Amino acid sequence: MTALMCGCVVLVVAMVAAINLSLPALSAGALAPSSTGLLWIVDSYVLVFGCLLIPAGALGDRYGRKGALLAGLGVFAAGGLLSPDAWSAGRAPP
Fold it and tell me: I need a surface site. Which of 46, 56, 60, 69 has the fewest CB within 10 A?
């Protein structure tokens, strides 16, 4: 179980690093966010992760840690798969 938890932490840290390293490509891409938009892209990822950490821990204590971990990884994977379909950096789709 310890190796699995370490692997999950490595995955999250790697994704934060990947977002930071992809900022030049994001700014030159089709979305073309402003500097404030780039800041929100990075900060919103970490903010959402931090805000969901305590509730996920409480759910893990109540219903089982394995289920909470798998649910969190599922939400993480869904967000990663849906992010390339973004309409813009700061607006909802028309």
Answer: 46
